Amino acid sequence: MTVLVASDLDRTLIYSTAALGLTMPDPVAPRLLCVEVHESKPLSYMTETAAGLLTELTADPSVVFVPTTTRTRKQYQRIRFPGRPAAYAICANGGQLLVDGVPDRDWRRQVAARLARECAPLEEVHQHLLATADPAWLRKTRVAEDLFAYLVVERALIPDEWVKALSEWADARGWSVSLQGRKIYAVPRPLTKSAAMHEVARRTGATTTLAAGDSLLDADLLLAADAGWRPGHGELADAAWTAPSVTALTTAGVLAGEEILRAFTREAGRLGRLGA
Predict the structure, then answer these.
(1) Which of 52, 67, 133, 233 to pair with 15, CA 20 to 30 A apart?
(2) Model confidence over 70-82: pLDDT tens digits?
(3) What does residue 3 show for φ and ψ, rounded to 5 degrees?
(4) Phi, psi (degrees; rounded to nearest 5) at 232
(5) pTM assigned to the model
(6) What φ, ψ does residue 32 adopt, rounded to 5°?
């Protein structure tokens, strides 16, 4: 039995300093392992316990661990996970499928054809973002992998009405909007992590899929998996979102990443015993 474990990364398995959520007294705070450096500075962490659990999980030959992220390839490749290197990775919210670190061209062609058929072009959406964003809270604009766009913002200054209006405008054009930390993503609705997960499952012969994620862009991934987990923080938690196959954890911050990896390891072990 092959078990595919597809997990979102930021604020699910790995955490920036701002997202750690260390509310306990300093002397009992968990030891942290830096797993990402950017411009010569530490950027993302997981607990040392979580690192050990991931090493254990990826050592199991029946488990296919698939990092699954909205990050671009370049951003993803900064991460140095403990354990066995992942043979597959899903980047750009499903727009890029990496096989041993190399983009799969056939998958990218399939994605491009579907986007052309089903939603408004990227340029139209990007121009709308630029035209409507307020310089008072806009810090950066980015286009990722020629697939979607996002803004880096001062979140506290963004009017709720602007986000709502953008969501309605995008929805009418086949796009989704997601607010994650200091970033506002505009992503074509057909561009999904779940589609890429199904493709990896097909290629690997996985009989069971497990998933985790914290944002609205992860909802389709969680629904598509046989079992899923979401942490006690993020867009999904804020919306009290759940589903019959999804466990809504109450743990928030970096300790949620630890709990998710415990759940993955426990469930993969249980399935392995059933398949033995």
Answers:
(1) 133
(2) 999 999 999 999 9
(3) -110, 125
(4) -85, 20
(5) 0.92
(6) -115, 145
